[in-house]
Amino acid sequence: xxxxxxxISANCGKISPASVEDYVRAGGFxxxxxxxxxxxxxxxxxxxxxxxxxxxGAGYPAGSKWQQLYEIKHFPKYIVCNADEGEPGTxxxxxLLEKDPLRVIEGMTIAGYVFNAHDGYIYIRGEYAALQDDxxxxxxxxxxxxxxxxxxxxxxxxxHLHIMTGAGAYVCGENSAMLNSIEGKxxxxxxxxxxxxxxxxFQQPTLVNNVESFANIPTIMQIGGEKYxxxxxxxxxxxxxxxxxxxxxxxxxxxxxFGLTLRDLIYDEELGxxxxxxxxxxxxxxxxxxxPCGFLSQLDTPYCYQALRDKGLSVGSGxxxxxxxxxxxxxxxxxxxxxxxxxxxxxxxxxxxxxxxxYALLDKFAQGTASKEDYALLQRLSTLxxxxxxxxxxxxxxxxxxxxxxxxxxxxxxxxxxRCPAGVCFTKxxxxxx
Length: 434
What we know:
This protein is of the alpha/beta class.
């Protein structure tokens, strides 16, 4: 039996992305048609039954988020789709934006109807600039066909979608920073509370969900929440788009049901296919640069929110970057830390300065000048960032480091002794290069 289960990716590569005709022939907009005949509370209940969790990284139950916003009586309300897919190793939202944008549009429109919102915004990352014209073409097609715009499908409900673009700031993937950016402000996180459901875009109640989250809504409406839940596990409904990359034979985007093991995802011939070369896998990085690293002893963990959390892992954005024995953990962590130094907004000292200090310490390990005291200091700094940083970026910046410190201490010890197990560090010094 195939381990790939195309629910929300079923149309990708099979229809013309901006063609309403193709999309309708594939069953598109049937979820919207059904939703427009239902009371909003019933739609929310279906999302709750589905146990859909936010696919952007945090994994918050979508039904609870929708319920919270519905109970707020202040209007206008806004719908915002976070398409600022900035996590390295993550490219699954790009697949939907490029290959099936009308599915995302349908999901956002259903959400708009639930909350009687008349304007929705999709914030597409600056690096996806080439996709913006294509997404606008899909919006225009939906308007011409009556599935978007004024008096949708002959009802009294009107809904308009607007595309906003980022300028390449990773921090704008944080929801409140993204809303500030849409408003033309500096893209830095807001103080919370108040939460975005209360004071969001333009200081009004706002629903913010990820591209993949919205893409699941039409499917839930078509097949029902209970059926959708049955494709996953008791705590994690449905399927997940995963992004496999690194030292793996079959990199790419795959849609899989929750409940497969990490071993299945990385080694199964239909999916990752195991390591790409002759070397064995050493570790893997889950959920993007802000996620934890996983190790061989954790390969039999089911891929679902609760089971991973119980093992100190996470689904995150759906990225799985695989590293084999040719990768030096110190070298890898330096690259991760360099990314966060570059992307820190500078708002708070723990993130702005802490990442620089972590990089300096890691460089000492790479140069063979580190001590056991430096190892202890790395542990202290990783804890400091997690507890004292202002937003999720800083709080998660040292997650990979902390998991490697715990599980690959032998590699750190080897570098203190002047040995690099992967043969990456010390080579320049040993050869006399300057």
